[in-house]
């Protein structure tokens, strides 16, 4: 493994870690506010600057390190040489044999298929949670307000 590959792997892991920590902070903020509202405090505002800052403050150093690595990689020109080349799947090519005139079909491996199904299921669950939470009404109301303002009706 070369230094470039190591750098790119560390950079990718840092970006994924920052994204995960930000998602965890947002979920924590939401669940704390939802618990307060469930207790009966209907005027409790869960999304304030102070509460968001308290949740995001621990993530900032890791974010800055990740941003620094990204900028450093751009300045030094660290990139994957194979990123613009098409991926060559030897197993698939062997299974199809020596076919020149027909288009090469790519079939999804079972692991890829399970991952796709899991991601789509998670997306459906999160969309349903947003609809149940009342987010759908908010989005439609904001969308209608923006459209009427842009057209000049509001």
């Amino acid at each position: 493994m070369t230094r470039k590959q190591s750098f790119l792997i560390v950079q990718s892991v840092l970006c994924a870690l920052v994204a995960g920590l930000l998602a965890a902070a947002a979920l924590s903020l939401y669940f704390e506010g939802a618990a307060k509202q469930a207790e009966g405090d209907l005027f409790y505002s869960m999304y304030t600057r102070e509460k968001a800052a308290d949740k995001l403050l621990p993530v900032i150093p890791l974010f800055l390190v990740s941003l620094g690595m990204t900028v450093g990689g751009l300045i030094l020109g660290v990139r994957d040489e194979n990123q613009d080349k098409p991926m060559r799947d030897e197993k698939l090519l062997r299974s199809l044999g020596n076919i020149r005139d027909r288009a090469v079909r790519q079939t999804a491996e079972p692991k890829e298929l399970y991952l796709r199904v899991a991601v789509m299921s998670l997306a459906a669950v999160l969309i349903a949670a947003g609809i149940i939470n009342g987010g759908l009404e908010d989005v439609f109301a904001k969308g209608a307000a923006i459209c009427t303002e842009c057209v000049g009706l509001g």
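DSSP finds six helices and no strands in the chain. Helices lie at 3-38, 49-56, 60-76, 90-96, 110-133, 135-151.
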